[in-house]
Automatic annotation (TrEMBL):
One of its GO terms (molecular function) is DNA-binding transcription factor activity. InterPro entries: Cro/C1-type_HTH, Cupin_2, Lambda_DNA-bd_dom_sf, RmlC-like_jellyroll, RmlC_Cupin_sf, TransReg_Diox_bact_type. This is XRE family transcriptional regulator. SMART domains: HTH_XRE (SM00530). GO terms for cellular component: cytosol. Keywords: DNA-binding. Residues 32-86 form the HTH cro/C1-type domain. PANTHER family: HTH-TYPE TRANSCRIPTIONAL REGULATOR, TRANSCRIPTIONAL REGULATOR. It comes from the Bacteria.
Length: 217
């Protein structure tokens, strides 16, 4: 990437997020403050709408007091969120999937041909991002036929590891060799057009909105 090609990212990949609180009061306070700020209102505004004092709300937001269920119900109505939302930061686990080399789950996918091997490298359901991500290691051998053309919802990222293929996206063709990558809108027709050097291996990482079906490419 040249200096001219650099873009300002909307999210810092090296940002450090404060850890999930182990203290229940701190977790509740964090969520109350977060929801209040999302609404763009001040502590005084929230105090006026709930009938609570500014001092009490400040103590709740800083985790210095344990609010009653009645207080949490009042806050949930004022902020427009369910009571359970205040406990999310305290209770919600963060999942991870670790796959040893060669131990990915082999998948039989739509359009699979002889010599096409899909290995799913990880899968996390009901994550906090609202986005589903499916990372595949795709291997094409000398017995492979050319893929059918895929077209599905979401975004897809390819990274070539071994071999060489000519990959189609829409009307464009890309000659992909080890180290090359391709990132694209998967709603356009796409798939390998020509298998140049085999065996070929590449990573295919597909992302799409949670609770909607994805598809391999």
């Amino acid at each position: 990437m040249t200096r001219e090609d650099k873009r300002v990212l909307s999210q810092d990949p090296h940002a450090v997020r404060e850890p999930r609180e182990n203290n229940l009061e701190m977790a509740i306070g964090h969520e109350v403050r977060t929801f209040r700020k999302k609404l763009g209102i001040t502590v005084a505004d929230l105090a006026a709408s709930t009938g609570m004092s500014i001092g009490m709300l400040s103590k709740i937001e800083t985790g210095n007091t344990s609010p009653s269920l009645t207080t949490l119900q009042t806050l949930s109505r004022a902020l427009g969120v369910p009571i359970t939302a205040f406990f999310r930061r305290f209770e919600e686990p963060r999942s991870a999937t670790f796959v040893k080399a060669g131990e990915g789950v082999s998948m039989e996918r739509r359009g699979t041909r002889a010599g096409h091997q899909y290995s799913l490298l990880g899968h996390i359901e009901n994550n906090t991002s609202g986005v589903m991500v499916e990372p595949y290691l795709i291997t094409l051998t000398k017995d492979s036929d050319v893929f059918p053309t895929f077209q599905h919802e979401g975004m897809e990222f390819l990274y070539m590891l071994e071999g060489e293929v000519v990959y189609r996206h829409g009307e464009q063709l890309y000659r992909m060799q080890p180290g090359d990558s391709l990132f694209f809108d998967a709603d356009a027709p796409h798939g390998p057009e020509e298998l140049v050097t085999l065996p070929a291996r590449y990573l295919s990482i597909i992302s799409y909105p949670q609770n909607r079906p994805g598809s391999e490419g």
